[in-house]
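Protocol check, entry for the methods section draft. Step 1: assemble the input record (protein sequence plus ligand SMILES). Step 2: submit for complex structure prediction. Step 3: store the structure tokens unaltered in the notebook. Ligand used here: zinc ion. Step 1 record:
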Amino acid sequence: MKTSPPEAQTAPARKCHCVINHPVTDEERAELDEAFGCARAVGDSLGLLLLVARLAGPCPARV
Ligand SMILES: [Zn+2]
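Step 3, stored output:
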């Protein structure tokens, strides 16, 4: 049986290209907020630290 490959799906382009990705859009900020909630719920202190890093520091996409 011949099958066709799934449609190529491309993620929407992000404006931030930093190593630790900063949220730039309202949707990305909502994703980060949800991630904070999940990390808090399970007591993931390293995860919280990484999420805080996504909020800190200079970002060329934030003007
Ligand atoms: Zn950035």
